[in-house]
Amino acid sequence: MVSRVIPVEVFDLVIFGATGDLANRKILPGLYRRYLSGQIPPECRIIGAARSAMDVPEFRNMVRAAIAEFVAAEKRDDAVIEAFISQIDYVAIDAKGEGGWSELKALMRPGVVRAFYFSVAPALFGDLAERLHLHAIADAQSRIVVEKPFGRDLASARALNETLAAHFSEAQIYRIDHYLGKETVQNLMAVRFANILFEPLWNAQYVDHVQITVAETVGVEGRGAYYDKSGAMRDMVQNHMMQLLCLIAMEPPYHFDPDAVRDEKLKVIRALQPVPPEDIVRGQYLGAKGTPGYVADSENPDTKTESYVALKVQVANWRWQGTPFYLRTGKKLRGRASEIAIIFKEPPHSIFDDAKGWHENVLVIRLQPNEGMNLSVMIKEPGPGGMRLTQVPLDMSFAEALGEDGADIPDAYERLIMDVIRGNQTLFMRGDEVEAAWAWTDPIIEGWEARDDKPRGYDAGSSGPEDALMLMHRDGRRWREIRE
Fold first, then answer.
1. Pair (199, 138) in one structural domain
2. More confident: 191 or 271
3. Domain for residue 421, yes or no?
4. Which residues contact 433 (CB under 8 A, 6 or more apart)?
5. The Cα angle at residue 403 between residues 400 and 404, in degrees rounded to 5
6. Is the N or the C terminus of the chain less surrounded, counting Cβ atoms within 10 Å?
7. Residue 118 shares a structural domain with residue 198
Protein backbone atom coordinates (compact mmCIF):
# COMPACT_ATOMS: atom_id res chain seq x y z
CA MET A 1 0.00 0.00 0.00
CA VAL A 2 1.55 3.28 -1.10
CA SER A 3 0.69 6.36 0.95
CA ARG A 4 0.31 9.69 -0.80
CA VAL A 5 2.54 12.55 0.27
CA ILE A 6 0.95 15.91 -0.48
CA PRO A 7 3.34 18.86 -0.15
CA VAL A 8 2.24 21.69 2.10
CA GLU A 9 2.33 25.38 1.23
CA VAL A 10 5.59 27.29 1.43
CA PHE A 11 6.10 28.44 5.02
CA ASP A 12 8.35 30.23 7.48
CA LEU A 13 8.40 28.29 10.76
CA VAL A 14 9.98 29.92 13.79
CA ILE A 15 10.83 27.56 16.66
CA PHE A 16 11.18 29.41 19.96
CA GLY A 17 13.24 27.26 22.32
CA ALA A 18 15.07 25.74 19.33
CA THR A 19 18.08 24.67 21.41
CA GLY A 20 15.90 22.76 23.89
CA ASP A 21 15.35 19.04 24.34
CA LEU A 22 11.99 18.83 22.55
CA ALA A 23 13.26 20.66 19.48
CA ASN A 24 16.30 18.40 19.26
CA ARG A 25 14.53 15.11 19.92
CA LYS A 26 11.27 15.62 18.07
CA ILE A 27 10.66 18.85 16.16
CA LEU A 28 13.82 19.24 14.08
CA PRO A 29 14.30 15.52 13.27
CA GLY A 30 10.59 15.33 12.42
CA LEU A 31 10.85 18.26 10.02
CA TYR A 32 13.82 16.58 8.34
CA ARG A 33 11.81 13.39 7.82
CA ARG A 34 8.96 15.39 6.28
CA TYR A 35 11.49 17.10 4.00
CA LEU A 36 12.93 13.72 3.03
CA SER A 37 9.43 12.46 2.16
CA GLY A 38 8.86 15.43 -0.16
CA GLN A 39 6.18 17.05 1.98
CA ILE A 40 8.17 20.21 2.76
CA PRO A 41 8.98 22.25 -0.37
CA PRO A 42 12.59 23.44 -0.79
CA GLU A 43 11.43 27.09 -0.61
CA CYS A 44 10.41 26.73 3.05
CA ARG A 45 12.47 28.19 5.86
CA ILE A 46 12.93 26.98 9.44
CA ILE A 47 14.22 29.58 11.89
CA GLY A 48 15.53 28.63 15.30
CA ALA A 49 15.16 31.20 18.07
CA ALA A 50 16.54 30.89 21.59
CA ARG A 51 18.55 32.69 24.26
CA SER A 52 21.78 30.90 23.30
CA ALA A 53 24.26 33.24 21.67
CA MET A 54 25.22 31.05 18.74
CA ASP A 55 25.52 31.88 15.07
CA VAL A 56 23.81 30.17 12.12
CA PRO A 57 26.65 27.67 11.37
CA GLU A 58 26.68 26.58 15.05
CA PHE A 59 22.94 26.05 15.07
CA ARG A 60 23.08 24.11 11.81
CA ASN A 61 25.74 21.84 13.33
CA MET A 62 23.40 21.28 16.28
CA VAL A 63 20.63 20.28 13.86
CA ARG A 64 23.02 17.87 12.06
CA ALA A 65 23.83 16.27 15.40
CA ALA A 66 20.12 15.95 16.27
CA ILE A 67 19.41 14.24 12.93
CA ALA A 68 22.36 11.89 13.45
CA GLU A 69 21.08 10.90 16.89
CA PHE A 70 17.31 10.80 16.46
CA VAL A 71 16.77 9.79 12.81
CA ALA A 72 17.19 6.14 11.81
CA ALA A 73 20.30 5.39 9.77
CA GLU A 74 18.31 4.27 6.73
CA LYS A 75 16.61 7.69 6.66
CA ARG A 76 19.84 9.69 6.76
CA ASP A 77 20.93 10.85 3.32
CA ASP A 78 23.88 13.24 3.34
CA ALA A 79 22.73 15.18 0.28
CA VAL A 80 19.19 15.54 1.60
CA ILE A 81 20.47 16.54 5.04
CA GLU A 82 22.59 19.32 3.56
CA ALA A 83 19.68 20.53 1.42
CA PHE A 84 17.48 20.57 4.51
CA ILE A 85 20.16 22.33 6.58
CA SER A 86 20.43 25.05 3.93
CA GLN A 87 16.84 26.06 4.73
CA ILE A 88 17.64 26.67 8.39
CA ASP A 89 18.42 30.01 10.04
CA TYR A 90 18.93 31.12 13.61
CA VAL A 91 18.33 34.22 15.72
CA ALA A 92 19.46 34.73 19.31
CA ILE A 93 16.44 36.31 20.94
CA ASP A 94 15.37 37.73 24.28
CA ALA A 95 11.77 36.69 24.99
CA LYS A 96 11.35 39.36 27.69
CA GLY A 97 13.44 42.11 26.05
CA GLU A 98 14.09 43.64 22.65
CA GLY A 99 17.17 41.68 21.61
CA GLY A 100 16.87 39.81 18.32
CA TRP A 101 13.35 40.83 17.33
CA SER A 102 14.35 43.19 14.52
CA GLU A 103 16.64 40.47 13.14
CA LEU A 104 13.78 37.97 13.25
CA LYS A 105 11.44 40.38 11.47
CA ALA A 106 14.01 40.85 8.70
CA LEU A 107 13.91 37.10 8.01
CA MET A 108 10.13 36.98 7.53
CA ARG A 109 8.92 36.79 3.94
CA PRO A 110 5.64 38.14 2.58
CA GLY A 111 3.14 35.82 0.95
CA VAL A 112 4.01 32.62 2.84
CA VAL A 113 2.44 30.84 5.82
CA ARG A 114 3.96 32.06 9.08
CA ALA A 115 3.94 29.67 12.03
CA PHE A 116 5.50 30.14 15.46
CA TYR A 117 6.19 27.14 17.69
CA PHE A 118 6.36 28.04 21.40
CA SER A 119 8.59 25.21 22.67
CA VAL A 120 9.23 27.15 25.87
CA ALA A 121 7.87 27.40 29.40
CA PRO A 122 4.24 28.66 29.53
CA ALA A 123 5.45 31.67 31.53
CA LEU A 124 6.99 32.99 28.31
CA PHE A 125 3.91 32.54 26.08
CA GLY A 126 2.57 36.00 26.82
CA ASP A 127 5.91 37.71 26.26
CA LEU A 128 6.40 35.98 22.91
CA ALA A 129 2.84 36.68 21.76
CA GLU A 130 3.11 40.34 22.72
CA ARG A 131 6.42 40.90 20.93
CA LEU A 132 5.34 39.08 17.78
CA HIS A 133 2.62 41.70 17.42
CA LEU A 134 4.60 44.63 18.77
CA HIS A 135 7.21 44.11 16.04
CA ALA A 136 4.59 43.29 13.37
CA ILE A 137 6.06 39.83 12.82
CA ALA A 138 2.73 37.99 13.19
CA ASP A 139 -0.31 38.89 11.12
CA ALA A 140 -3.95 37.79 11.03
CA GLN A 141 -3.07 34.63 9.10
CA SER A 142 -0.17 33.56 11.36
CA ARG A 143 -0.43 30.48 13.58
CA ILE A 144 1.10 29.74 16.96
CA VAL A 145 1.73 26.29 18.42
CA VAL A 146 1.80 26.06 22.21
CA GLU A 147 3.17 23.09 24.14
CA LYS A 148 1.66 21.73 27.33
CA PRO A 149 1.25 22.18 30.22
CA PHE A 150 -1.79 24.37 29.60
CA GLY A 151 -1.87 25.57 33.17
CA ARG A 152 -1.83 23.49 36.35
CA ASP A 153 -5.45 24.19 37.32
CA LEU A 154 -8.55 25.93 35.97
CA ALA A 155 -7.49 29.41 37.11
CA SER A 156 -4.06 29.24 35.47
CA ALA A 157 -5.51 27.68 32.29
CA ARG A 158 -8.00 30.54 32.01
CA ALA A 159 -5.26 33.09 32.57
CA LEU A 160 -3.12 31.44 29.89
CA ASN A 161 -6.02 31.40 27.41
CA GLU A 162 -6.72 35.07 28.12
CA THR A 163 -3.06 35.94 27.56
CA LEU A 164 -3.00 34.24 24.18
CA ALA A 165 -6.41 35.60 23.20
CA ALA A 166 -5.14 39.15 23.74
CA HIS A 167 -2.92 38.74 20.69
CA PHE A 168 -4.28 35.82 18.63
CA SER A 169 -7.74 34.56 17.71
CA GLU A 170 -8.77 31.03 18.69
CA ALA A 171 -8.46 30.01 15.04
CA GLN A 172 -4.75 30.92 15.18
CA ILE A 173 -3.93 28.97 18.38
CA TYR A 174 -2.83 25.33 18.11
CA ARG A 175 -2.58 23.64 21.53
CA ILE A 176 -0.59 20.53 20.80
CA ASP A 177 -1.07 17.14 22.44
CA HIS A 178 1.15 14.63 20.67
CA TYR A 179 -1.15 11.72 21.58
CA LEU A 180 -3.70 13.05 19.09
CA GLY A 181 -1.10 12.84 16.31
CA LYS A 182 -0.61 9.10 16.71
CA GLU A 183 -1.77 7.01 13.77
CA THR A 184 -3.82 4.69 15.95
CA VAL A 185 -5.69 7.52 17.67
CA GLN A 186 -6.82 8.86 14.31
CA ASN A 187 -7.67 5.36 13.14
CA LEU A 188 -9.96 5.07 16.14
CA MET A 189 -12.18 7.70 14.53
CA ALA A 190 -11.97 5.90 11.17
CA VAL A 191 -12.90 2.54 12.74
CA ARG A 192 -15.88 4.07 14.54
CA PHE A 193 -17.28 6.35 11.88
CA ALA A 194 -16.22 4.79 8.56
CA ASN A 195 -17.52 1.28 9.31
CA ILE A 196 -21.04 0.12 10.08
CA LEU A 197 -19.62 -2.80 12.05
CA PHE A 198 -18.81 -1.09 15.36
CA GLU A 199 -20.88 2.05 15.82
CA PRO A 200 -24.22 0.24 16.45
CA LEU A 201 -22.50 -1.65 19.32
CA TRP A 202 -20.64 1.39 20.68
CA ASN A 203 -22.87 2.07 23.69
CA ALA A 204 -23.87 0.92 27.16
CA GLN A 205 -26.16 -1.79 25.83
CA TYR A 206 -23.26 -3.77 24.40
CA VAL A 207 -20.09 -2.45 26.07
CA ASP A 208 -19.41 -3.76 29.58
CA HIS A 209 -16.57 -1.33 30.33
CA VAL A 210 -13.62 0.50 28.82
CA GLN A 211 -10.01 0.42 30.04
CA ILE A 212 -7.46 3.10 29.11
CA THR A 213 -3.90 2.31 30.16
CA VAL A 214 -0.71 4.33 29.78
CA ALA A 215 2.10 2.40 31.47
CA GLU A 216 5.76 3.39 31.54
CA THR A 217 8.82 1.44 32.68
CA VAL A 218 10.87 4.56 33.40
CA GLY A 219 10.72 6.64 36.56
CA VAL A 220 11.06 10.38 36.98
CA GLU A 221 14.81 10.43 37.48
CA GLY A 222 16.38 13.54 36.01
CA ARG A 223 13.16 15.55 36.17
CA GLY A 224 11.86 14.61 39.59
CA ALA A 225 11.71 18.18 40.87
CA TYR A 226 9.51 19.20 37.92
CA TYR A 227 7.31 16.09 38.03
CA ASP A 228 6.75 16.45 41.77
CA LYS A 229 4.85 19.68 41.09
CA SER A 230 2.45 17.96 38.72
CA GLY A 231 2.05 14.21 39.31
CA ALA A 232 0.31 11.61 37.18
CA MET A 233 -3.09 13.30 37.35
CA ARG A 234 -1.91 16.59 35.92
CA ASP A 235 0.81 15.13 33.70
CA MET A 236 -1.23 12.39 32.00
CA VAL A 237 -4.91 12.13 32.97
CA GLN A 238 -5.99 15.74 32.52
CA ASN A 239 -4.67 15.93 28.94
CA HIS A 240 -3.52 12.75 27.16
CA MET A 241 -5.94 10.27 28.72
CA MET A 242 -8.79 12.77 28.69
CA GLN A 243 -8.37 13.10 24.93
CA LEU A 244 -8.42 9.32 24.46
CA LEU A 245 -11.56 9.04 26.59
CA CYS A 246 -13.24 11.75 24.52
CA LEU A 247 -12.53 10.00 21.22
CA ILE A 248 -13.98 6.76 22.59
CA ALA A 249 -17.07 8.32 24.15
CA MET A 250 -17.95 11.17 21.75
CA GLU A 251 -21.00 11.21 19.49
CA PRO A 252 -20.49 11.20 15.71
CA PRO A 253 -19.80 14.78 14.58
CA TYR A 254 -21.87 16.06 11.68
CA HIS A 255 -18.67 16.30 9.61
CA PHE A 256 -14.95 15.66 10.03
CA ASP A 257 -14.44 19.32 10.72
CA PRO A 258 -12.22 20.85 13.44
CA ASP A 259 -14.96 22.55 15.42
CA ALA A 260 -17.50 19.76 14.87
CA VAL A 261 -15.08 17.18 16.31
CA ARG A 262 -14.07 19.41 19.20
CA ASP A 263 -17.70 20.28 19.99
CA GLU A 264 -18.42 16.58 20.54
CA LYS A 265 -15.30 16.08 22.69
CA LEU A 266 -16.34 19.03 24.84
CA LYS A 267 -19.76 17.46 25.44
CA VAL A 268 -18.06 14.32 26.79
CA ILE A 269 -15.90 16.28 29.23
CA ARG A 270 -18.93 18.20 30.49
CA ALA A 271 -20.78 14.91 30.97
CA LEU A 272 -18.09 13.42 33.25
CA GLN A 273 -19.43 12.84 36.74
CA PRO A 274 -17.47 13.84 39.86
CA VAL A 275 -15.23 10.98 41.02
CA PRO A 276 -15.77 9.89 44.65
CA PRO A 277 -12.69 9.10 46.80
CA GLU A 278 -13.36 5.36 46.75
CA ASP A 279 -12.99 5.36 42.96
CA ILE A 280 -9.47 6.84 43.03
CA VAL A 281 -6.18 5.03 43.72
CA ARG A 282 -2.85 6.86 43.92
CA GLY A 283 0.58 5.31 44.23
CA GLN A 284 4.33 5.94 44.39
CA TYR A 285 6.92 3.46 43.17
CA LEU A 286 9.29 2.08 45.77
CA GLY A 287 13.03 1.58 45.49
CA ALA A 288 14.47 -1.93 45.03
CA LYS A 289 17.82 -3.61 44.35
CA GLY A 290 19.76 -0.39 44.60
CA THR A 291 17.29 1.49 42.39
CA PRO A 292 15.87 4.62 44.02
CA GLY A 293 12.15 5.00 44.60
CA TYR A 294 9.98 7.98 43.79
CA VAL A 295 10.81 9.79 47.06
CA ALA A 296 14.53 9.76 46.21
CA ASP A 297 13.95 10.63 42.54
CA SER A 298 11.76 13.59 43.48
CA GLU A 299 14.36 14.84 45.98
CA ASN A 300 11.49 15.56 48.36
CA PRO A 301 11.31 13.33 51.46
CA ASP A 302 7.84 14.66 52.31
CA THR A 303 6.34 14.25 48.85
CA LYS A 304 2.72 13.20 48.49
CA THR A 305 2.73 13.41 44.69
CA GLU A 306 1.49 10.35 42.82
CA SER A 307 3.54 8.53 40.19
CA TYR A 308 0.52 6.26 39.58
CA VAL A 309 -3.19 6.95 39.47
CA ALA A 310 -6.21 4.80 38.65
CA LEU A 311 -9.79 6.06 38.42
CA LYS A 312 -13.24 4.77 37.72
CA VAL A 313 -14.99 7.38 35.59
CA GLN A 314 -18.67 7.63 34.63
CA VAL A 315 -20.04 9.49 31.61
CA ALA A 316 -23.54 10.77 32.37
CA ASN A 317 -25.30 10.61 29.02
CA TRP A 318 -27.68 8.28 27.17
CA ARG A 319 -24.96 6.43 25.28
CA TRP A 320 -22.77 5.51 28.24
CA GLN A 321 -24.95 5.57 31.36
CA GLY A 322 -23.87 2.64 33.54
CA THR A 323 -20.73 1.77 31.56
CA PRO A 324 -17.60 2.63 33.58
CA PHE A 325 -14.35 3.88 32.08
CA TYR A 326 -11.30 2.72 34.04
CA LEU A 327 -8.20 4.87 33.61
CA ARG A 328 -4.72 4.03 34.90
CA THR A 329 -1.27 5.44 34.30
CA GLY A 330 2.01 5.08 36.13
CA LYS A 331 5.77 5.14 36.18
CA LYS A 332 8.13 2.19 36.80
CA LEU A 333 5.52 -0.41 35.86
CA ARG A 334 6.08 -3.92 34.50
CA GLY A 335 5.91 -2.93 30.83
CA ARG A 336 5.60 0.00 28.47
CA ALA A 337 2.18 0.14 26.89
CA SER A 338 -0.48 2.61 25.85
CA GLU A 339 -3.78 1.04 24.89
CA ILE A 340 -7.52 1.43 24.88
CA ALA A 341 -9.56 -1.73 25.47
CA ILE A 342 -13.30 -1.87 24.78
CA ILE A 343 -14.67 -4.93 26.58
CA PHE A 344 -18.03 -6.05 25.22
CA LYS A 345 -20.76 -7.80 27.19
CA GLU A 346 -21.36 -11.51 26.97
CA PRO A 347 -24.15 -12.84 24.71
CA PRO A 348 -27.56 -12.85 26.40
CA HIS A 349 -27.79 -16.64 25.98
CA SER A 350 -25.22 -19.30 25.11
CA ILE A 351 -26.31 -22.24 22.94
CA PHE A 352 -23.05 -24.09 23.61
CA ASP A 353 -22.37 -26.60 26.37
CA ASP A 354 -18.86 -25.17 26.65
CA ALA A 355 -20.20 -21.84 27.90
CA LYS A 356 -17.65 -21.81 30.74
CA GLY A 357 -14.89 -21.50 28.16
CA TRP A 358 -16.37 -18.29 26.80
CA HIS A 359 -14.28 -15.10 26.90
CA GLU A 360 -15.57 -11.62 26.23
CA ASN A 361 -15.00 -9.92 22.89
CA VAL A 362 -12.37 -7.22 23.29
CA LEU A 363 -11.30 -4.53 20.84
CA VAL A 364 -7.81 -3.28 21.74
CA ILE A 365 -6.38 -0.13 20.19
CA ARG A 366 -2.60 -0.09 20.75
CA LEU A 367 -0.83 3.26 20.71
CA GLN A 368 2.55 1.89 21.74
CA PRO A 369 4.49 -0.21 21.23
CA ASN A 370 3.66 -1.64 17.79
CA GLU A 371 0.69 0.57 16.85
CA GLY A 372 -2.34 -1.34 15.69
CA MET A 373 -5.66 -2.93 16.60
CA ASN A 374 -6.68 -6.33 17.89
CA LEU A 375 -10.17 -7.84 18.10
CA SER A 376 -10.60 -10.97 20.24
CA VAL A 377 -13.40 -13.26 19.05
CA MET A 378 -14.63 -16.75 19.91
CA ILE A 379 -14.30 -19.62 17.42
CA LYS A 380 -14.55 -23.39 17.47
CA GLU A 381 -11.34 -25.03 18.59
CA PRO A 382 -9.97 -26.94 15.57
CA GLY A 383 -10.19 -30.72 15.52
CA PRO A 384 -12.70 -33.46 16.39
CA GLY A 385 -14.23 -33.96 19.79
CA GLY A 386 -17.23 -31.68 19.91
CA MET A 387 -17.90 -27.96 19.93
CA ARG A 388 -15.15 -26.56 22.10
CA LEU A 389 -14.71 -22.80 22.07
CA THR A 390 -11.48 -20.86 22.05
CA GLN A 391 -10.58 -17.20 21.79
CA VAL A 392 -8.41 -15.96 18.93
CA PRO A 393 -7.21 -12.48 17.98
CA LEU A 394 -7.92 -10.78 14.69
CA ASP A 395 -4.71 -8.77 14.72
CA MET A 396 -3.81 -5.75 12.63
CA SER A 397 -0.38 -4.35 13.22
CA PHE A 398 0.00 -1.33 10.97
CA ALA A 399 3.57 -2.28 10.12
CA GLU A 400 2.43 -5.73 8.89
CA ALA A 401 -0.97 -4.90 7.43
CA LEU A 402 0.17 -1.87 5.45
CA GLY A 403 3.45 -3.28 4.23
CA GLU A 404 6.62 -1.21 4.11
CA ASP A 405 4.71 2.08 4.26
CA GLY A 406 2.95 0.89 7.40
CA ALA A 407 6.33 0.49 9.09
CA ASP A 408 7.14 4.10 8.21
CA ILE A 409 4.38 5.73 10.23
CA PRO A 410 5.19 9.42 10.74
CA ASP A 411 5.91 10.56 14.27
CA ALA A 412 3.02 12.37 15.92
CA TYR A 413 4.88 15.69 15.92
CA GLU A 414 5.52 15.41 12.17
CA ARG A 415 1.84 15.02 11.44
CA LEU A 416 0.72 17.75 13.80
CA ILE A 417 3.20 20.35 12.55
CA MET A 418 2.09 19.69 8.97
CA ASP A 419 -1.53 20.18 10.12
CA VAL A 420 -0.52 23.56 11.54
CA ILE A 421 0.86 24.60 8.17
CA ARG A 422 -2.35 23.41 6.48
CA GLY A 423 -4.46 25.31 8.99
CA ASN A 424 -6.25 22.16 10.21
CA GLN A 425 -7.12 22.33 13.93
CA THR A 426 -8.97 19.00 14.18
CA LEU A 427 -6.27 17.31 16.26
CA PHE A 428 -5.60 20.31 18.52
CA MET A 429 -7.36 21.29 21.72
CA ARG A 430 -9.65 24.29 21.88
CA GLY A 431 -9.52 26.74 24.77
CA ASP A 432 -12.92 25.82 26.22
CA GLU A 433 -12.01 22.14 26.00
CA VAL A 434 -8.87 22.70 28.10
CA GLU A 435 -10.81 24.68 30.70
CA ALA A 436 -13.56 22.05 30.92
CA ALA A 437 -10.96 19.33 31.52
CA TRP A 438 -9.46 21.33 34.39
CA ALA A 439 -12.92 22.05 35.80
CA TRP A 440 -13.41 18.28 36.16
CA THR A 441 -9.87 17.56 37.36
CA ASP A 442 -9.51 20.30 39.99
CA PRO A 443 -12.07 18.92 42.50
CA ILE A 444 -10.38 15.50 42.38
CA ILE A 445 -6.98 16.96 43.25
CA GLU A 446 -8.44 19.37 45.80
CA GLY A 447 -10.26 16.45 47.42
CA TRP A 448 -7.22 14.31 48.08
CA GLU A 449 -5.23 17.36 49.20
CA ALA A 450 -7.97 18.27 51.69
CA ARG A 451 -8.04 14.69 52.98
CA ASP A 452 -4.23 14.69 53.15
CA ASP A 453 -4.22 11.39 51.23
CA LYS A 454 -0.88 9.67 50.88
CA PRO A 455 -0.12 7.58 47.80
CA ARG A 456 0.17 3.81 48.24
CA GLY A 457 3.59 2.30 47.68
CA TYR A 458 4.06 -0.20 44.86
CA ASP A 459 7.05 -2.22 43.74
CA ALA A 460 8.95 -1.02 40.71
CA GLY A 461 8.31 -3.47 37.89
CA SER A 462 4.84 -4.39 39.16
CA SER A 463 1.39 -3.51 37.79
CA GLY A 464 0.83 -0.83 40.43
CA PRO A 465 -0.71 -0.70 43.93
CA GLU A 466 -2.84 -3.57 45.21
CA ASP A 467 -5.66 -1.09 45.81
CA ALA A 468 -5.91 -0.57 42.04
CA LEU A 469 -6.59 -4.28 41.60
CA MET A 470 -9.36 -4.03 44.20
CA LEU A 471 -10.87 -1.06 42.34
CA MET A 472 -11.70 -3.49 39.53
CA HIS A 473 -12.20 -6.61 41.65
CA ARG A 474 -15.06 -5.14 43.67
CA ASP A 475 -16.93 -4.62 40.38
CA GLY A 476 -16.28 -8.21 39.29
CA ARG A 477 -13.77 -7.09 36.67
CA ARG A 478 -10.00 -7.17 36.29
CA TRP A 479 -7.36 -5.06 34.63
CA ARG A 480 -5.78 -6.28 31.43
CA GLU A 481 -2.29 -7.58 31.99
CA ILE A 482 0.62 -5.19 31.56
CA ARG A 483 3.21 -7.31 29.81
CA GLU A 484 6.96 -6.95 30.03
1. no
2. 271
3. no
4. 262, 265, 266, 269
5. 115
6. N
7. no
Catalytic residue among 240, 349, 359, 473: 240
Q: What is the pLDDT of residues 286-301, one digit of tens each?
A: 988 788 999 999 999 9
Provide the residue range defining the domain that includes 58.
Answer: 11-147
Question: Do 332 and 218 lie in a common domain?
Answer: yes
pTM of the model: 0.91
Q: What is the pLDDT of residues 38-89, one digit of tens each?
A: 999 999 999 999 999 999 999 999 999 999 999 999 999 999 999 999 999 9
Q: Looking at the structure, do residues 252 and 188 belong to the same domain, yes or no? A: yes
235 is in an annotated binding site: yes
Is 178 known to sit in a ligand binding site? yes
Q: Torsion over CA of 11, 103, 136 and 167, rounded to 10 degrees? A: 80
DSSP line for 227-239: HTTTHHIIIIIII
- Is 105 known as a binding-site position? no
- What domain count does the chain have? 2
CATH code, domain with 366 = 3.30.360.10
477 appears as a binding residue in the annotation: no
State yes or no: is 240 an active-site residue: yes
Question: What are 246-258's pLDDT values in tens digits?
Answer: 999 999 999 989 9
Pair 216, 136 in one domain: no
Q: Is 62 helix (H, G, I), strand (E, B) or coil?
A: helix
The strand pair at 45-50 and 88-92 is best described as parallel
CA distance 129 to 120: 12
pLDDT surpasses 80 at 355? no
